[in-house]
Design a protein that fits this description.
2 copies of one chain form a homodimer. Chain A is of the alpha/beta class. In chain A, 54% of the residues lie in helices and 13% in strands. Chain A has a 6-stranded parallel β-sheet with strand order 3-2-1-4-5-6, sandwiched between helices. The first copy, chain A, has a 3-stranded mixed β-sheet with strand order 7-8-9. In chain A, strand 1, helix 2 (23-32) and strand 2 form a beta-alpha-beta unit.
């Protein structure tokens, strides 16, 4: 049974559109795991490493879809995904009935649902599977993957997810993966606010923030954000990590969607405002823990 | 050397004032570890368990101080600590020069510094050592202890702290323990806000919050608050934990001190407002994760 299953997996042909900071190491992990990939990137120079590893370089998302049963997408924002799937030379013009489009970008949950419906009209399945864990997670294959879509399509794609990530959760139907990713970005933004305010309070009281972090890590205030982002603040070193400008883009999706579903998110709005202020100060390329720099400049 | 050290520890006589939800199990842990305690509680009925275990029941904090080299305090708020130390029949009227007052209550960092200075005039040392970990941590001896005071006094008290807690950090000089505890309460309050908003967003989007929590726990959004308080929200079960009314008292200390040191804490102010709304709704006896109930009721 296991052998048969592994054989099925090997027979699937894969496509990958979008070879950016995340997409390039992710597609490389799939290629190196022994799968055959057809790939497309707007800037073909980014595809050289993959070509050397044996991937087929295509001239359009449509050509990728013609050569693949499962087409992964990893691009920047909602309009990019729409263009890649539905634009001239888009995936929908090349994909066979029964194929699956797996969008690993972080985009609007509402638009994701619409994209899935449009694909379903052509008997193409869609899985939204945004990721968390950054470039390091993409390289080491330890991403968190939050998936939305049918149980059947998720089961078909899961063996490939296992080459890309560790914590792989089927959250619900189409769009549910994007909702989980939005929740992820809310929690991280507001937790950065929490740790920033605590360390600012300590600093203003003349107390060593490192000792405070040490005292808090073992208890109920302990978190990954306290550990990682708290350390960035204490070292005054905001090398990303996750860039403030990208976190701002994701919080835009959160706040837009929140308005539509009538969710009251004042903490997320506050953290978004502080990320905006980091961008206004020219710190968009820094890690979003630069919220601490913003708060530090304020005088009550 | 170790034997000699242990012997010194055994010779110290201990006092404990305040046998409440936290103080009773803490003093019992000290008594059961083989130390001799003199204890006082406003309501002497609470002291019976300790008396049975071998502790000496005193009629005032002064009498406790007359019988002890190290006097622990665990009461509710700043005025209570002031009364216990400096009031009629207070500790200062019975304590010997060279003794140490260890205040494990959560009170104002600024007042703590003043108390320490007043005690120093009588050659009495003070250590502020607020705790985190709740009743369960007090019973099992697994509290987090954040201490402020001189390194010498901390070293003398540390062996007793080890009977009460696990993560024991000497944060800095007098008041630094209270500052760390304030930071702890900021992080927990704002993190509860973060998790509440994320789970509210998921709910309004029609996505299973349990799956979202599962997807987020392994990544950068993972935290003790997501684990413990997130679970309370998802189960709609707000049995404390830590009561909203006590968290509100601590946030009062935070916001008062923040105003004095000119720290800008808008996230903490927001979370405090939501705890207030929980209290207004009659939920002060519930865990402070009842912030989720407050947000849920709002319509944008």
């Amino acid at each position: 049974m296991l052998a048969r299953y592994a054989e099925d997996v090997q027979e699937m042909k894969l496509g990958f559109v979008g070879l950016g900071i995340m997409g390039l190491p992710m597609s490389l992990n799939l290629q190196r795991a022994g799968f055959t990939l057809s790939v497309y990137n707007r800037n073909p120079a980014r595809a050289q490493t993959l070509e050397k590893a044996g991937a087929k370089l295509c001239r359009s998302p449509k050509e990728v879809a013609e050569n693949a049963d499962i087409i992964f997408i990893c691009v920047s924002d909602t309009p990019d995904v729409e263009q890649v799937i539905f634009g001239t030379d888009g995936i929908i013009h090349g994909a066979k009935a029964g194929s699956i489009v797996v969008d690993m970008s972080t985009i609007s949950p509402e638009e994701t649902k619409k994209f899935a419906r449009r694909l379903a009209e052509k008997n193409i399945e869609m899985i939204d599977a945004p990721i968390s864990g950054g470039e390091a997670g993409a390289i080491t294959g330890t991403l968190s993957i939050m998936a939305g879509g049918s149980a059947e399509a998720f089961a078909r794609v899961k063996p490939y997810f296992e080459k890309l990530g560790k914590n792989i959760v089927h959250v619900g139907t189409n769009g549910a993966g994007q909702v989980a990713k939005a929740c992820n970005q809310i929690v991280i933004a507001v937790s950065i606010e929490a740790v920033s305010e605590a360390l600012l309070f300590a600093e203003k009281c003349g107390v060593d923030g490192r000792k405070v972090r040490e005292a808090l890590m073992g208890g109920f205030a302990g978190s990954k954000v306290m550990e990682v982002h708290g350390n960035r603040m204490l070292n005054d070193d905001y090398k990303p990590g996750f860039k403030a400008k990208l976190h701002r883009k994701d919080m835009g999706i959160v706040m837009d969607t929140a308005a539509k579903v009538k969710a009251f998110l004042p903490g997320a709005a506050l953290a978004t405002r502080h990320i905006d202020e980091a961008l206004e100060a020219g710190d968009g390329e820094l890690d979003s823990s630069a919220i601490f720099k913003v708060l530090r400049k304020k005088v009550k």
